[in-house]
Recover the amino acids of this structure.
């Protein structure tokens, strides 16, 4: 009850939640990118004039490698501040850049944007979902000495020296196991996949699911996480044991980073929220079947 009172905006004691006070800037002089000491390649892809929060950051020593805590409203240009500081350091030979995001969908979006934007500069982008690979990330901070990120990932299995080129699999001719109670959603999903050339098998019980996994070969499992007759985490563990490498997508999965039962932590490869965006759903499933992690 005390915590609820603490978080109630109407009863909140601002002094208990106050971190710092900063003076608001009445007028901000916009910074011209051409006036900055930046690599010409970076200047060419930046806007001519920076937004207010970006201009304030430049004036606060961003390009002098000073630490920054940026607090600003949505869509005011915070991301570009990190890009300018990080990419400028990379192009100057001063280390690498780590960009962390809290949501899987946002990670996918930023990866695509950064790839299109910065690959022409010769930068290489690595895209890692730490939780999906059962990894761990820790942050160690020291006053006036910056922060250290410790990322632990399991070692990858050794790969053969030469790989045979194989055609990537898509929805066509794929065998898909759909786990759900039936109803409009499952029927529409089954018909949709069939129209794309897939063969769909629908089941609604834990016993039948495991029986099918033992007796048939599938390319993909799509499960409704809210089906009462399915123990989702158990099904995923059995899937890994019976058919290693078989991808699993969970529908109506609510991502709660603090929970032990989030789809990614349970071993699922893709979490799909409702309402379904059909075009995006088909794109994500195609990527999953092609063994391209769709985040």
């Amino acid at each position: 009850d005390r915590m609820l009172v603490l978080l109630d905006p109407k009863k909140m004691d601002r002094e208990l939640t106050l971190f710092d006070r900063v003076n608001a800037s009445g007028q901000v002089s916009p910074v011209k990118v051409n006036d900055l000491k930046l690599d010409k390649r970076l200047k060419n892809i930046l806007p001519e004039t920076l937004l207010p929060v970006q201009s304030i950051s430049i004036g606060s020593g961003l390009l002098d490698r000073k630490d920054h805590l940026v607090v600003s409203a949505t869509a005011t240009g915070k991301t570009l501040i990190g890009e300018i500081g990080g990419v400028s350091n990379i192009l100057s030979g001063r280390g690498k850049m780590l960009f962390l995001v809290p949501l899987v969908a946002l990670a996918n979006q930023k990866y695509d944007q950064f790839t299109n934007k910065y690959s022409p500069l010769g930068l290489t982008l690595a895209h890692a979902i730490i939780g999906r690979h059962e990894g761990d990330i820790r942050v160690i901070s020291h006053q006036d000495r910056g922060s250290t990120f410790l990322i632990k990932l399991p070692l990858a299995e050794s790969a053969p020296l030469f790989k045979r080129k194989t055609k990537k699999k898509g929805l066509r001719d794929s065998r898909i196991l759909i786990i759900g109670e039936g109803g409009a959603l499952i029927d529409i999903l089954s018909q949709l996949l069939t129209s794309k050339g897939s063969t769909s098998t629908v089941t609604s019980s834990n016993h039948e699911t495991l029986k099918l996994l033992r007796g048939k070969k599938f390319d993909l499992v799509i499960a409704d996480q809210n089906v009462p007759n399915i123990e989702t985490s158990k099904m995923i563990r059995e899937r890994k044991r019976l058919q290693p490498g078989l991808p699993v997508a969970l529908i109506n999965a609510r991502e709660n980073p603090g929970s032990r039962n989030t789809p990614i932590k349970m071993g699922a490869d893709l979490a799909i929220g409702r309402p379904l965006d059909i075009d995006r759903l088909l794109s994500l499933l195609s990527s999953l079947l092609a063994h391209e992690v769709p985040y």
